[in-house]
Every structure is written in structure tokens, then in C-alpha cells.
Amino acid sequence: MTDTLKVWFLAPEAAPFAKTGGLADVAGSLPVALRAQGVDVRVGLPFYRTIKEQRPAVRTAVSNLDVPLGTKNLPCNVLEAQAEDGGSVYFFDRDELFDRDELYGTQEGDYPDNLERFAYFSRAALLFAKTVGFDFDVVHCHDWQTALVAAYLRTVYREDPFFHRAASVFTIHNVGYQGLFAPSHFAATGLPAGEFRPEGIEYWGNISLLKAGILYATAITTVSPRYSREIQTPEFGLGMDGILSRRSADLCGILNGANYSGWDPGRDPYISARFTVDDLGGKKVCKDALMDEMGLNQALRDRPVLAVVSRLTVQKGYELLLEVMDELLHMDVGVVILASGEQQYRQPVAALAQKNRGRVAVRIDFDEVLSHRIMAGADMLLVPSRYEPCGLTQLYALRYGTVPIVRATGGLDDTIRQFDRTSGKGTGFKFGPFQAQAFLAQIREAIQTFFDKATWETIVRNGMREDFSWVEPAGKYVSLYEKISHKTLTKRPVGHPVGKEFTTIRAGARTRHKKARSASTARDPKGIKGVRHG
User: I need a labelling partner for 432 at 20 to 30 A (CA). Which of 154, 197, 268, 349 fits?
Assistant: First the structure.
């Protein structure tokens, strides 16, 4: 056995190749940090149209790989490209499955054959590794789209000597996206018929691919410590709390890192002026430029500019924002909103700008470049989420001297420290209950503090000094990989060792969580929807 830890890293999207949200940032940055710690990480993605349009430099790794999908075998071409750090990225090409306008669906809804698309990708990824002899120690799967990989290793390929020692990690980026499909799709999974049962991937008469990942993976992670605890409760588990509690011995939260190579106000090519924690002069230039670009009134230049950068979903707490907006505008502030997502929020959010021209500016779009300029130019970032697995916007905001006002949930609570006037410590403002008045109270506190320039500058600098780079999280993932694969690198990576949370499930743990699981499966999961990523 060599001392090189080999990881097959499979995700439905990864920056800079394909992105709809934070998952892509993680899948683009974490492999780079892992390779820096001595891990042989290779990344696999579907070959989407958006990737083809970028015309990446590729070579053919395998032609006409025979991949089962239901009762058919569909050839797959696998192309290899290089990441910026030289690591290998593999694209799985099958036009009728992946050559589409969007990754997961359109505004009208998700693609109806998403199970088939990602079952094919998952199966192809395993067969490709076997074909080229990439004898990985761990396959790291992300969200429901790649959850079947863990199931295949435990069922279809259980007796295959090539996969015999392979362990799996399944990372839940958002438990609200559960990969729910009608039972008529089951044959396309290629799983044994007996796996469609309550103890398997059946979920209230349907298929749940998220459940498959939770059931069959060697270890399960979420993207922040608090979220890993929250999803084991009825309030946040969205019907999966019972099974997650049952697997609690193998479940842990590892906080996402921030990609500071792409998000650094000291060298950001997208902003009007660069600045650092030691020289904040450029931030005022960025604020003036943002106000001009978004059409905010000149009279607001010395007033706070509050920003929202997120998806338009129920998760993000837009109802709280809409409820407090009138009182917020009475405080004589500017508001900038950059968002894309669900139709139900588009009209009321757009109406805010029409009604309050010069004071509220709204862009309904996914605009990576504008998000940089907003982070650099805004004074405060509003994140009133119902729940938040990790969140990256608040991490970027800290680095850009934009003070977060967040709900104390999930990764928001793990990353933002409430400012304390007495000690001068803290990086933002937090509220607990999901209530408009609690949210508004913290906004008022932040605005009042804003006009105490010395104190405000202290908060800004506190946040800019925070380090949420990938070094420590990558070290924790390496420790986890080593533990479940029984393989240790000769040179220990930077980071903290993984503790008892990754021990094998004991019979006592199963007994202890039996009641919790029963209570969960007795609840009607009505209202849980969506198969897109978190």
C-alpha cells in the first residue's frame, strides 16, 4: 500500500466550470486544498452545455465507456481537463442527458428525467475509475445527485474486487433538496429490487436519493457543525431527522471554507478600488461606484447601504425582509438586492425597486461579477435565513468589510460572532427567533453603531481579520478519509483530527435512535419539494 491517499471527488457542479450556487464553490476549492495537503484528488462532473461553451482544453480519457441505465447500455465519452492547480477534472459526456440549457431544470421546474441523468453519471464515474485503474480509497459524493454512488458500492458492486476497499463520504449541502422521484423511475437506478423499501431508498411511496446517500455512505458530513446537529431535529430535518439520528455516530459537520484567491478585496479585478484591513480607503470608492451603478440617490452616500445577495427561496427568509422593508426605509438607508430563484418572490422583490426608486435597487439575475462589487461597496449584508447549512456570502462579506446581520442558525451562527461594545470583540449582529421584529431590532442596532465611526471601523476590521480559508477544513476531511479508509499519509496535513463522531454505528446507537426514527417516518413530508442542489 502506498502512502498516497486517493480520492474520487464527484459533484453535480464545480467552479469555474459549472455553477448555480455555493456547492460549486466548495467543489471547486476543496480539491485544491486537499491536493495541497498531499491527497491525489480527481474530480468528476457531467459535461454540461455550459462547460462545452467555455471550450476547455480537453483530451479524451476513455471513448465509448459502456454504462448501464435501466435496461439499456449507453456509451459515454470521458474527457480530461486540468484545474488551475494542475489537478485532473473529468467530464462525462452524453448529449441527450447533459447538453441542455440549464443544469437541473428551467423556471418551469426540474427536468423530469433528473434521476436518470444523475444515475447515469454516478454509474459512469465508478466504471470509469475501474476502467482506467484509479483505485481510489474514498469516493466523496455531494448532494442527492451523486448519492447513488454510495448505494452502488454497497449493492451492485459489493462483490467486485476492484471496489472492495473503497469507502464513501456523502456531504449534505442542504437537506431540503432530497432528490424525490416517483417509483416508476426505480428501474433506472439499477439497484436490486429489494432496495425499494422503507429500510432502503423508498420514502413515503417515492424514491429519495438523498436518503440513499444517508443510508449507504460510510460517513456523512454537513457543511457546518451546528447544521449537523440541527438536521437531527424535527424543526430542521425536514423528515430526514430520524434516519440522520440513527446514523449520528457517522455524522459530523465540517465548516466550509472561503475561496480567498477569488474573493480578496486587496486584489479583486472586479471592484473599483482595492483595499485591505490596514487601508480601508478603497471601500468608500467602491461604495460610491456601487451606488452609481445601481442608481441609488446621492443623498444616501453618508447613510448605510444594506445588501442582500442570495437565492429567492423560502429558505432565505425573504418574507422577513419584505415585512421589515417599510420600517427599514424610514431609517433613511439604501438597499441593494441581487437574487435569482423562485417566481413567487420575484414580483414582490422587483416591486420594491419600482416603488422606491433611488432607495432600493434590485437585480433579478445570477451575476458573479456584480456580487463582488456589492460585497465591496455595501456597508451591511442581510441574511435572515430560516435555516442555513453553511452560507458563503457572510464569509465573503467579512473579508470585504461588509458587516453581516444574520439569523443565528446553522453555519451563520458558527461563523458570525455577535459584536460586544464593552470588549470590542465580534464581527456582526445576530438574531434568534425567525421573527420580523427580532430581525429589525438587530438592523436598528447595526445602523446606530454605523454612525459611531470608530466602533464601526473596529467591527469591520474584526471581520476582515477572520480566517475561513480551506486549510483547516481540508485537514479535517483528510483525517476523515484516513479514518474510514484505514490509510494514513506519511506527512500529516494541517488541521484537526476527526474524533469519535466517525466511529462505526454501535448496536446501542441504533437502539437509542429507534424512537426518533419512528417519530420522523410517522410525519407527513408534504411540502418538502425540490431536487436541485442546496
Answer: 349
Residue 294: which domain range? Answer: 281-465
The Cα–Cα gap between 236 and 410 comes to 10
Question: Rounded CA gap, 141 and 145, in Å?
Answer: 8
CA distance 199 to 518: 12
Q: Is 303 left (phi over 0), alpha (psi -120 to 50) or beta?
A: beta
Of the CA atoms within 13 Å of residue 493, those in its CB half-sphere come to 29
454 and 493, same structural domain?
no
Asked whether the beta carbons of 392 and 256 are under 8 A apart, the reply is: yes
Residues 465 and 459: their CA atoms lie apart, in Å, by: 10
Beta strands in 328-464 (DSSP E): 334-341, 360-364, 380-383, 403-407, 429-431
Task: Answer for the pair 213, 170: CB distance below 8 angstroms, yes or no.
Answer: yes
Q: Is the pLDDT of residue 533 over 70?
A: no
Is 99 part of any domain? yes
Q: Inform me whether the pLDDT recorded for 504 exceeds 70.
A: no
pLDDT digits (tens, 9 = 90+) for 13-61: 999 999 988 899 999 999 999 999 999 999 999 999 999 999 999 999 9
Inter-CA distances, 286 with 305, 370, 392, Å: 12, 12, 21
- In this prediction the pTM is 0.88
264 assigned to some structural domain: no
CATH code for the domain in which residue 320 is found = 3.40.50.2000
State the DSSP H helix or E strand holding residue 28, giving kind and residue range, or none if neither. Answer: helix 22-36
